[in-house]
Amino acid sequence: MQFGFVATPTANGAQSLSAFFGPICIQIIDLSEDLTLNTRGDLAQRVASAVQIKVEATEGNGKRKVSTWPECIEVDQPGFDRQLSLTLSVKRQKIMLEGRPFNVIVAGGVSRDGLIQDRDAQPVLIVQQQSVSEDSIVDALVEFVDRKVVASLRRR
Q1: Is the Cβ–Cβ distance between 88 and 47 less than 8 Å?
Q2: Bridge partners, 155 (sequence order)
Q3: CA distance 84 to 67
Q4: What is the spatial distance between Cα 69 and Cα 73, in angstroms, rounded to a whole number?
Q5: What range defines the domain where residue 94 resides?
């Protein structure tokens, strides 16, 4: 009987996530309570602008570009393999708590290349009785990207 072993490299704890990507591409999907999916280019533009400011404050101007789909690097263009493609999500629900209605927003996301996955990225939650403003949703998405992506730039 033969046994084969596959060796897998161990992750270097000191290696920053930012070492694995260059430009950042942001796309936002909005899932409403009735399960309607919408691509939100308007939110993506606002989030990308805010994230670009945070990136520039961390690294300096012009070092890393933050774009929105479809202005991102395409699969057949140079640099695609270094692009961090984020699919951010806004999930909306209404719940009843102690007989009162609440609006719940779950703002989070993943990267298409697997660097950022649901299992290791806590979303930002908004729970309130009044309607949740678009500004609050943008702030939540920016907070998510700041915590997961921009923070890795600060640790370089």
Answers
A1: yes
A2: none
A3: 10
A4: 9
A5: 20-154
Helix-helix angle 134-145:41-59, to 10 degrees = 40
Number of domains in the chain: 1
CA distances 147 to 51, 96, 100, 144, 154, Å, are 11, 30, 32, 5, 10
Each residue's pLDDT expressed in tens, for the chain with a length of 156 residues: 444 444 333 444 445 676 778 999 999 999 988 999 999 999 999 999 999 999 999 998 888 999 998 899 999 999 999 999 999 999 999 999 999 999 999 999 999 888 888 888 899 999 999 999 999 999 999 999 999 999 888 876
pLDDT of residue 155: 77
Residues 6+ apart with CB under 8 A from 108: 88, 89, 118, 121, 122, 123, 124, 144
Which CATH number does the domain housing residue 106 bear? 3.30.160
Is residue 14 situated within a structural domain?
A: no
With respect to residue 122, please indicate whether it lies within any of the assigned structural domains.
Answer: yes
Amino acid at 59: E
Distance of CA 23 to the CA centre of its chain: 13
User: Quick check: is 15 in a domain?
Assistant: no
| Residue 101 falls inside a structural domain | yes
